[in-house]
Design brief:
393 residues, alpha+beta, Transferase(Phosphotransferase), domain 1, four-stranded antiparallel beta sheet, two-stranded parallel sheet, 6 strands
Length: 393
């Protein structure tokens, strides 16, 4: 029978870009035992648990006094009487018995990377997070079942979490959080709501935000403060789609964010490196979004290609450059294109596209596949067109 006991858990308080940890005593049940006595749950509840775990782990990683957690697994999580999940405070002597349980060989082999006895690293925490998600989906009867789209998204997320190497492996918990949009109880679109369509009028605001992250100066000394500057020049935005007043307001807002980011980047070395990785991911995301906007909304393939080329080390952006060139027939003569290479390119995009922008990438692929089918009458292209029409509907 389920029994609540007292545990010392971590309570995290966020202040700007920093988090602070305190120890709280509460009655609850280890998540692994709580699930044993509650083997069924609503789909919205399961995704809420996932979001709680990710947010708590993100706070731990942003807390200087904690750093990384070390043992991310169902034994380290406590379900409170209010049905809220907390991580155990592993510093507390009262949790030594729970820590010893997590150090057992069977638990280590299930939730730590191969050969690891103690996982005090970002990589180990992300691996344990992925294995915890796998455990949750196998232990709980979900009502209703995952949709095809939801299942595909979660498989991608888990695969990137447990991957030990490769360009697609997650580098931070914040990146995982961005791929986990919370369920909208008022919408009937499953646990993941479809992303809103891109609006052309947001080009100016997005471009200014992107420029915020593109210039990070490097000091000669390791202790020099790193500065983030907002570029003074802005690009002409096709007949002035955003007003000067709204742009000025956006710049004012971004200036405030810039001050917070500048403070963030002057923290000690470990915190700085994590922050810099997050900023690089944000800049990459913004460039991709602009590339999609010019492709889908403005049909300006030349500018779309330009934004994707700005992230030439990113595999997804490289593949999108090829797709855009195919649509504008740039460098690909009708008699010289390779249908098999294009199909491989399109397939790679489907594999790499982020969950939050899935609908936009599917629209791009629909155009590209439709053009390929028109030229080749390929059965594979025809099937892809049919499948993508249903997906974006």
């Amino acid at each position: 029978m389920e029994r609540n006991e007292g545990y010392e858990v971590l309570r995290l308080t966020g202040q700007g870009s920093k988090y602070y940890a305190s120890t709280d005593y509460l009655e609850g049940t280890p998540f692994v035992w709580w699930i044993k006595y509650h083997p069924k749950a609503a789909k919205e509840q399961i995704f809420d648990w996932i979001y709680q775990i990710v947010c708590a782990l993100e706070g731990i990683h942003k807390c200087e006094e904690l750093g990384n957690y070390g043992y991310v697994n169902p034994y380290s999580l406590i379900m409170s009487e209010e049905k809220t999940l907390y991580f155990l405070d592993l510093r507390a002597t009262s949790n030594e018995e729970a820590l010893a349980r997590m150090q057992r060989r069977d638990v280590r082999e299930a939730f730590l990377p191969q050969g690891a006895y103690y996982g005090r690293s970002v990589r180990a925490d992300l691996y344990g997070l992925g294995r915890t998600f796998q455990w949750l989906f196998t232990q709980v009867g979900m009502e209703p079942d995952l949709t095809v789209r939801e299942r595909r998204r979660m498989l991608k997320i888990i695969r990137r979490l447990v991957s030990q190497q490769g360009k697609n492996a997650y580098k931070s918990v914040s990146a995982v959080k961005r791929d986990l949009p919370r369920c909208d109880d008022d919408a009937h679109t499953g646990a993941f709501a479809k992303p809103l369509p891109i609006v052309a009028a947001t080009v100016c605001g997005i471009a200014v935000l992107m420029l915020l992250f593109t210039q990070v100066s490097e000091g000669k000394d390791a202790n020099d403060k790193q500065k983030i500057t907002i570029a003074k020049e802005t690009e002409d935005m096709n007949d002035g789609e955003a007003s000067v007043g709204s742009a000025a307001e956006k710049v004012k807002q971004l200036s405030k964010e810039n001050e917070e980011l500048e403070t963030k980047l002057t923290d000690e070395k470990a915190t700085y490196e994590n922050s810099l990785a997050e900023l690089s991911e944000e800049a990459l995301s913004l460039r991709r979004e602009l590339g999609l906007l010019y492709f889908l909304e403005l049909k300006d393939y030349e500018r779309s290609e330009g934004y994707f080329r700005m992230s030439d080390t990113d595999l997804l952006s490289q593949q999108m450059v090829l797709l855009v060139q195919w649509m504008e027939q740039k460098g690909i003569a009708d008699e010289s294109y390779d249908p098999s290479a294009l199909l491989a390119c399109f397939s790679s995009i489907e594999e790499l596209m982020p969950q939050t922008e899935e609908n936009s990438y599917e629209k791009c692929l629909l155009r590209a596949y439709a053009k390929l089918y028109k030229k080749t009458k390929s059965d594979q292209a025809k099937a892809a067109v049919k499948r993508l029409k249903e997906a974006v509907a």
